[in-house]
Design brief:
35% helix, two-stranded antiparallel sheet, single chain, globular, Rossmann fold, alpha/beta, 7 helices, seven-stranded mixed sheet, 17% strand
């Protein structure tokens, strides 16, 4: 009998709006990791970026949370992030999974705000590194071009490349490698349909399972 490397691991997932509605990654990725035997806690705050997880920061578009096998809970108002250092200290996870990328992109801006993104990202990863916790960072997926967020393939490639070079000590998972541009349908360019989130969640579960980070996070 083959036992999953994730069996018995405690995993904390934090991130943006991709974790804040039924059928999103709070359902599909959470379930995928749990089915591998992991004990999963997911917290998503709409519109959050890495810097907003350094201290308690209000958000105006809702949050989602799910613990273990429980159904997720959603708050359309009163949302706020929680300091990542405090979350790690309280929960002592074996693995932190970060789902953030689209909120750094500024798809509606003329240029990618690289300095701002670098400051936010490096401060956040330093907080994780200080805890010594193994980390995996999931970058943005293709989505479809246009929509209310003005997502475009050139910028998402730029952001993904930036994150790949700036999230150490986290292991980077490039979601762009998991599908073809426009392959997964969206409702607004950025957020996927139910089938899209299922495909992304399945692919991410496998990518995390295969990640070198899992070897170091497995308890003896």
């Amino acid at each position: 009998m083959v036992t999953s490397l994730l069996a018995g691991l405690t995993i904390l997932i934090v991130g943006d709006s991709h974790l804040t509605a039924p059928g999103y990654l709070i359902t599909t990725l959470h379930d995928g990791l749990a089915q591998q035997g992991a004990i999963v806690h997911t917290i998503g705050v709409c519109g959050s970026n890495p810097g907003t997880w350094l201290k308690t920061t209000p958000a105006d578009c809702g949050e989602g949370e799910r613990k273990g096998q429980n159904a997720p809970t959603f708050k359309p108002s009163g949302a706020q992030t929680r300091p990542i250092a405090e979350l790690i200290a309280a929960e002592k996870p074996d693995l932190v999974v970060v789902v953030m990328g689209d909120t750094l992109a500024g798809y509606d801006k003329g240029a990618f705000m690289k300095t701002w993104a670098w400051q936010n990202t490096t401060q956040f990863t330093k907080a994780i590194a200080a805890s010594g916790t193994t980390c995996v960072w999931i970058g943005p997926a293709w989505g479809t071009e246009g929509g209310k967020y003005k997502k475009n393939f050139a910028r998402v490639q730029q952001v993904s490349s930036f994150l790949a070079s700036n999230v150490k000590p986290c292991t980077y998972i490039n979601s762009l490698d998991l599908s073809k541009p426009g392959e997964w349908a969206t409702v607004d360019g950025q957020h996927f349909t139910e089938s899209g989130y299922q495909a992304w969640g399945n692919a991410l579960t496998q990518a995390i399972l295969n990640s070198p980070a899992i070897q170091s996070s497995k308890k003896p």
